[in-house]
Design brief:
Jelly Rolls; alpha+beta; binds fe (iii) ion; 298 residues; binds ligand 6CS; 23% helix
């Protein structure tokens, strides 16, 4: 159902999360559950209410060392540097993210398919899951740039065609996360509110948005209202700890001017009952290395 600017495009699907609208719109209550399965892991006890959970020591120190070496290898691979999956910083040209790392690295593929990892997503989503996106994020010291406030689901719905927020992200820290080095901030409970965003999605929007997102971000008034309602907390923890979070939670990060770099392995699990359709608000689906077109369960 791809369209060009000259086509008249009629989408007959029911869209419970309309976004990329002509103008401002009021916040919507989420009509879908957050937890679709049965939570057994005690670390996930507050996931439903908070929309996130911090898991200490998900990786052992030895695993942290091995995966740190693995992501250094990926960032230093000259062939990958020329690959579309490698996103560089706008200003410095340093590697910012590498996508589809579960296909680029056998070690990462093995890690994310282990029951202790994928089992977290299965408990929350109540079904088999597949990998919608995976990436490594590198935030260097001194001039690492953050991500402005956003809901991931807003983009995955608009641009990748995920019908419902039935996906979770797991960010596994490979460096220590301090309050000062650009660690992720989240608004607890904000996953229950969908914030429609204004502005239509240009073709190939991902070429800009992965460096700096400007469309599909909430207004300052939206952010202020949500922050006043939910508050803001930060994911801090030692290397090897992890943050599991709902696809619709409002989150963002500041720049990192400290000497302490920050990097993580990031994997998005989506329910096999929520597979990507045509985008809800974009001219064409994004490439499979950003939003998977392969729904094979993990
Ligand atoms: O594009 C994505 O899939 C993710 N990256 C950004 C910068 N925003 C939306 C989502 O978190
Ligand atoms: Fe995000």
């Amino acid at each position: 159902m791809a369209y060009t600017d000259s086509d008249i495009y009629i989408d007959s699907r029911v869209d419970r999360y309309p976004t990329r609208l002509v103008g401002p719109s009021s916040h919507l209550d989420r009509t879908d559950p957050t937890v679709w399965g049965r939570i057994e892991h005690e670390g996930l006890a507050n996931f439903d209410a908070d929309g996130f959970a911090i898991l200490d020591a998900l990786l052992t120190p030895d695993e942290v060392a091995d995966f740190s070496a693995e992501i250094d290898r990926l960032a230093g691979d000259p062939a990958l540097r020329e690959d579309d999956r490698c996103i560089v910083e706008k200003a410095s040209n340093r590697v910012r993210s590498i996508f589809e790392v579960h296909r680029l690295s056998a070690a990462i593929a093995d890690l994310v398919s282990q029951p202790r990892i994928v089992g977290l997503a299965r408990q929350v989503l109540g079904s088999d899951v597949y990998i919608h996106q995976s990436r490594v994020n590198y935030m260097p010291g001194f001039r690492g740039t953050g991500f402005y406030w956003h809901s991931d689901f807003e983009t995955w719905h608009a641009e990748d065609g995920l019908p419902a927020p039935r996906a979770v992200s797991l960010s596994i820290a490979l460096t220590d996360n301090y309050p000062v080095n650009g660690s992720l901030m989240v608004m607890p409970g904000s996953h229950r509110t969908f914030v429609p965003c204004a502005g239509s999605t240009p073709a190939e929007h991902y070429r800009e948005s992965l460096q700096e997102q400007e469309i599909g971000v909430p207004t300052r008034a939206d952010i202020t209202a949500l922050a006043n309602e939910c508050g803001i907390t930060q994911f801090t923890g030692a290397a090897g700890s992890a943050l599991l979070f709902d696809s619709n939670i409002m989150h963002g990060s500041s720049n990192n001017i400290t000497p302490y770099p920050r990097s993580n392995i990031f994997v998005v699990f989506n329910s096999v009952e929520n597979t990507a359709q045509e985008p809800f608000a974009a001219p064409a689906p994004r490439p499979g290395y950003i939003g998977s077109h392969d729904f094979t369960p993990v």
